[in-house]
User: What shape does this take?
Amino acid sequence: MPHDPGFLSGTENLSMPAATVIPVLHYPDVPAAVAWLVRVFGFTERLRIGDHRVQMTIGNGAIVVAHGDAPVDPEFSLMVRVASADQHASRATAEGAELHSQPQSFPYGERQYTASDLAGYVWTFSQSERDVDPGTWGGELLTGRPDKA
Assistant: This one.
């Protein structure tokens, strides 16, 4: 991906995750949400701020769990890349996640499943199975790696 100097400075800050995009998700009970996200989806606690805000990481991504009312019907979903959609779905199911779809492979090279968390946020977990040119399934790559020589 092209580097844009307008994002991420060279200064590291222990008070902030290194991820470029950090969604803030509201839950009425932050400690319960954090425990659930760790146990069911495999997040790691990074930083606690009292009992009202927690930074969490998964891979090289991050979220903030903050105290507040979760949306009744969130109009967005979150996507997380995983090594194995099947293994992740098995863990999530065993720990009580509500799956909306079982892992399935798609023509664009991903194997994915979708689940809801305890507040109703929708998560898609995606495993790359193969490298697929987006033009073969109707996509159009606008930026990214150049064609292989």
Remarks:
- The chain has two helices and eight strands.
- The beta strands are 24-27, 44-49, 53-58, 61-67, 77-81, 98-105, 110-116, 122-128.
